[in-house]
Structure prediction request, 213 residues.
Amino acid sequence: MSIPKKEITSDKIKDSAKKLFTTKGYSATTIRDIAKESQVNIALINYYYRSKENLFRIIMEESFEQLFKQIIPILNNKDTTLEEKIESLVNNYLEFLLEFPELPLFVLNELKNNPKHLETKINLKKKVSKSSLINQIMAKNSEINPLHFVFNLLGMIVFPFIMKPVISSSKLLENEIFNQIINERKHLIPLWMNSIFNSKTEIDIFNQITKTK
Prediction:
């Protein structure tokens, strides 16, 4: 059974837009660029996707869902250690964000404008709160709320990409150096995160704080 021409054209536009958004960024990509890359006219893009903004939203939503399809099995794998989970999460997440660097800002914007939209799509609370990852964190130290650990992990992974527009506009780092630093963080973040549980001093300080409240 052959694929309808309409679907082929729609996918071609979307693939071309994804390539341009990734290489040039959202702001620098125009509808005309997408039309040229996909070898269709602008009217056809508007017919299928209505606007550049809507096309970008569709691509980012699909990308976000794709990311969680990779991550959720890692969170729930009972056959891997906490250390192995952290390493896999960091590597998968950073590799994905190098391909879609605009994703974190898109997610933040979506959560601000429509907080229930993405949560409805991925049901993050249920998938994370009952995961093997959370159980292993609590097994390491039941007195530490595992959300502290998750917040630190996500912050280390995502924050450089949130700051990337500022870094790029101020010319603090060339794109090649930024990517090099991100690749270095694939090795550094697991070391930093594991040190939280291996450092008795940090745990003792945290326990003192919680007991005084």
Notes: The mean pLDDT is 84. The longest helix spans residues 52-75. The chain has two domains: 1-50, 58-211. Residues 35 and 44 are 9 Å apart (CA to CA).
